[in-house]
Amino acid sequence: MSRARQLYDWADTRLDVESAQNFLGKAFPAEDSFLLGEVALFCFLLLVLSGVFLGFFFEPSTSDVAYDGSVQEYQGEEMPEAFVSVLHITYDVPFGMFIRRLHHWAAHLFVASIGLHMLRVFFTGSYRNPREPNWVVGTGLAALSMGAAYTGYALPFDEFAATATGIGYNLTVSVPLLGDFLGQVVFGGEFPSSATIPRLYFLHVLVIPSAIAVGLAVHMAILIRQKHTEAPREGDVETATETVDQEDDSVIVGLPAFPNQAAVSAVVFFLTAATLSSLAGFLPVHNIAEYGPNDPAGTPSLIMPDWFLMWVYGFLKLLPQWASFTVGPVHVSGEFIGGIVLPGLVFAAVAAWPFVDRVPEPTHFTADPLERPRQTAVGVAAVAFIMIASIAGMNNILAEQVLGTTTSVVNPWLSAALLGVPLLYGAITYYLLRDGGADTPPESLPTGTSQGGESDD
Ligand code: HEM
């Protein structure tokens, strides 16, 4: 018996390599849009790696220290240590600026790819029975990813980020009855207190990434257990071992996990890393030297959250004053409704959707969005709703710089658009697709000529 065989047998008796091989033969449907989830996965990996690098140099403290680094204008100035350490990373640590930018762009691509992945799952009906649990876990991951980005945004403790973080503090303390307690837990008391940055740092580097890692593990475990959905087949498919009936959705046709899908995933990883490296190399991020350290007495003229939180900011800006009310000892503020209740309802509606669009039988083929007028209309309306809310978040730019007027003039229009445009877009979509897209040709089958593989149970 050869040495290699002996080694294999040794490992097999201990680790059951044989069944791992079955796993490696698992089929992955060869659908390009299925790679969006992988892009999100690789962004998370790159975020963790670049975050570890930044963690070696970042100081989560707001105590003042004298600056001694490459930025001339701050030389010798007493400034918060967190701010000083980020200046240090950016201008003095070798590769510091590159890694900081990479971390920043990876965070943006992470949220963007999650959003696109979610839309792909939605429009192809891949959330239907039996995949509802994974949709719900995914909704949690989307919320956590925004939380991770938000807490990271605050860390440099510069003027701009600190002001935007202050908005988060005001929202947190606006929660009736529990507000002060939550403000203590998340922000370490009235913002900005000396405990705020350590608290947000703890959430950003440990609590939220751990929760995302656990959520991802559950997401992947469910995916492996249930297997992917697959696009409908044009006919029976000949694989290396058998003929798979066109209608038989108990067997998945696609690329074997190893080596084919692993090679595709490696390409996706390197493309993701290359895209982020190019962005980090050429596009600057949040220039903290320009904003300066947090100054409790000053307010920067233009405060804006990141694009993926702009819709929440839009709710805050559109909510009328009279939306606040008091019942006995409980005050319900407009901030609470716009910044917490409405976004909470949006996430709850997203999580609940598979239970609204219920199918009694397990469904393993993806749907054609053109053949689902109701669901596609709801999806189009939802995207329009988030877009208009995001535009409302930039109402000052729209009013002052684009239309040359004031926000009080554009706000009523934006409020009407927030309700009207989604309804209109949804109705148009439904009207265009209402005959079930009968004329639409079926999707061509990408796996027809690929190596077949089938699920292992
Ligand atoms: C950290 C964020 C996320 C990561 C890294 C991630 C990753 C993945 C990956 C790699 C897959 C398999 C390939 C694919 O279908 O794209 C997948 C499938 C799936 N994801 Fe996610 N996902 C995330 C968030 C979400 C969100 C926000 C939702 C929906 C609310 C969601 C719902 C699903 C569902 C239902 C499937 C099964 C789809 C099918 O079998 O066709 N995921 N996810």
UniProtKB/TrEMBL annotation:
Q: Where is this gene product found?
A: Membrane
Q: Which residues form the Cytochrome b/b6 N-terminal region profile domain?
A: 7-232
Cited InterPro entries: Cyt_b/b6_C (IPR005798), Cyt_b/b6_C_sf (IPR036150), Cyt_b/b6_N (IPR005797), Cytb/b6-like_sf (IPR027387), Di-haem_cyt_TM (IPR016174)
- Keywords attached to this entry: Electron transport, Heme, Iron, Membrane, Metal-binding, Transmembrane, Transmembrane helix, Transport
Per UniProt, residues of the Cytochrome b/b6 C-terminal region profile domain are 244-435
Q: Which Gene3D superfamilies match?
A: Cytochrome Bc1 Complex, Chain C (1.20.810.10)
Q: Which residues cross the membrane?
A: 34-58, 105-123, 135-155, 200-224, 262-285, 336-356, 377-398, 410-433
- Its protein name is Cytochrome bc complex cytochrome b subunit
- Topological relation to the membrane, as annotated: Multi-pass membrane protein
- First-listed, main subcellular location of the protein, grouped into a coarse class: membrane
